[in-house]
Amino acid sequence: MAVEGGMKCVKFLVFFFNFIFWVCGVALIAIGIYAQVALGKALVVSSGSSAGTPVAILVLGVIIFFISFFGCCGAWKESYCMVTTFAVLLSIIFLVEIAAAIAGYVFKDKVRSVLNEGLQEAMNEYGEDPAVTEELDDLQRNFNCCGAINYTDWANIKQFQANDTVPRSCCRVNTTTCNVHPSPATVYEKGCLQSIEGWMKKNILVVAAVALGIAFFEILGIIFACCLMRGIRSGYEVM
Asked: Where are the transmembrane segments (predicted)?
């Protein structure tokens, strides 16, 4: 009876932690969507590798979301194969997350370089590509920024260099000449690279807290799944 009660407890814990994983999956999906919406303009004008980051978070959330249902079914039906598959998949996801965290830390300076290059390329295409022009204008308005490093970056673009102007999306005041002979009094002095980095630093603690919480529950889920696998394989009655 003690063994049976213990296995019932393990089964309940596996089921409970799968519910937690389901919540974690929903959280990652929400974070991915939020990052895509909030940084959408910056990611469009940047490189493909940067643009894939919110999508990767979103995909990971969807994967965890479905694996949690798989684990619930395995625990409920006491299927050794399903519980084993759940534990293996969860272990793989945990290792991928660790690798991604290490890569993110190692290449954090590369992200700044990629964003800067993407912004510079978009500025060079401003006025020539309607889609890039619209995205860059929206980015400067939404982040209250101008240029990549600062508003003087536009002086290196041929179409603005000749008449000493900047795009009207740089204007901090709404006048007909706000973008002519720009100065900190009329246009945003801060560059978009700094604004984007500020947004990321402001929200990185939330992302880190969510990631740590998910990793903690993943470890517990793997442990309890292994315990349930052992019980099922030993032929204990868990119902």
From this structure: 12-35, 55-76, 83-107, 204-229
